[in-house]
Every structure is written in structure tokens, then in C-alpha cells.
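Onboarding guide, step 5: your first structure request.
Type a short instruction followed by the sequence, for example:

Predict the 3D structure of this protein.
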Amino acid sequence: MSAVLDNRNSLLPGRFEFLMGLYAENYHRLTRLFAPQQLAPGHYVSDVDDGLDVHLHVQECHPYTLELELTYGFVDAHTGLRAPSAQLRMYTDAHVAEALHCHPGRHLWQVLGPFTPAHTVFQHRLRMNGFLSRWLEYLVEQGHSTSTLRPQV
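The system replies with C-alpha cells like these:
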């Protein structure tokens, strides 16, 4: 039998490698979309005249990381916060961006509960970052870009 068939799993990325690839993809999509590493902390709005303004809040800038919130202007009736919402962390030195959580005002442990098994946390991170990847792709298709992003007054 050939080496390819004997070691089939070596051709496919593992789940961890897939997640890291998703983080890298999200970084490059976000960088091409809004270039947040070039923005000062503050609130920004992207408007493409479709009635769905995208809000980007650059919360903190550190030498190698950025803390961001990406959301639409919709307000969730239950929480009173904007939704959908994604809390993001960009690592500018490693060129990766991860969705920390996609629930308004909640941290991962609040969503999954304390002492959550590692497999459940991993699956949740895959879902959140897959959602972020698709959302960033959609925003580009709708025409959002650095040229449509303005500081919010």
C-alpha cells in the first residue's frame, strides 16, 4: 500500500490546526476589511446605505494586541445591548484574531458555565470563529471597507 493511504490522517489538518488557521483567516479578513490596527481607540461606524450599519469599537490598543467589539446597530430586546455582537482580540505579532465571545456583555465562562470540559470549549470556539469568518466575508460582499468606516460622533 502507498504511504498516502497508510497515513491518511497526516494529509488532513487536525482540529487544533484548523482552529489556528481560522484565527489567521479572521485576522487577514478583519485587516483587509477595517484595518483596526491603524485606528485609535474609539467608536467607528461603517455605512453602505443598506440600513445595516456596522459598529466597530476599538476598546484597547496594546503593543501586540487589540481588543475590539464588532456589532450591528440592532438592540437585543432581552439584554438591551447591540446584537449580533462579537468580542474580538487581534494579536498583531502573530497575525491571528479570535472571537472571544459572541454574546453581548457575556464572557465565555458565563455562556458555557464553570468547569466546562475542554472539548465543549473547543467546539464553542470553532463555532464562534466560524461565525466570525462568515460574517466578515458577508460584510466585504456588502461593500464595507476602510473607506466606509467613519468615527462615530
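Each response can be followed by summary notes, for example: The chain has four helices and six strands.
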